[in-house]
Specification:
single chain, two-stranded antiparallel sheet, about 150 residues, mainly alpha, about 5% strand
Length: about 150
């Protein structure tokens, strides 16, 4: 059996922060929030131990019992990949804002909001599905197969 585990409560907290901050940014037209969330997502992708939204969960929400852990057998890499894809979309949105193409910037931001919402509310991680698809194609760097698929074999 696989002993790799992921706390899905931490993932949902991350998604909730992403959705909330990006919605606030859109409603108030504060593009700096998109830049901030892009930075948090990209930093958290490459250095997961310093992920800001996860830290809020680990050091504030979980110890106070505000959110209970939901640890599952899972691979962390697909979730990090999904976060990285979202961060890249928001970095592209930032470049669009700098280029005075706000409509494109907000469209890219809304793609991230929609995909994070799909994950948070329906449990469908499109970035994870992409990761596993790339794994099945044998793309280098995507070395982990779906755990459930392996268990069923």
């Amino acid at each position: 059996m696989n002993d790799r585990k992921v706390d899905h409560s931490a993932l949902r907290t991350n998604q909730a922060f992403i959705i909330g901050l990006l919605l606030i940014g859109f409603v108030t037209d504060v593009k700096a929030l998109v830049v901030f969330v892009a930075a948090v997502m990209l930093i958290g992708t490459f250095w997961p131990k310093v992920s800001l939204f996860k830290a809020v969960y680990v050091y504030f929400l979980k110890p106070r019992g505000l959110i209970k852990p939901d640890v599952k057998i899972d691979n962390p890499e697909p979730h990090l990949f999904a976060q990285g894809v979202g961060g890249v979309f928001l970095a592209a949105a930032t470049l669009a804002f700098v280029a005075n193409a706000a409509t494109i910037g907000w469209a890219l931001t809304w793609i991230v909001i929609a995909l994070a919402s799909l994950n948070l509310f329906a449990g469908i991680c499109v970035g994870c599905l992409m990761y596993y698809w790339l794994n099945r194609l044998g793309v280098p760097g995507f070395k982990y197969a779906r755990i459930n698929a392996r268990i069923q074999e």
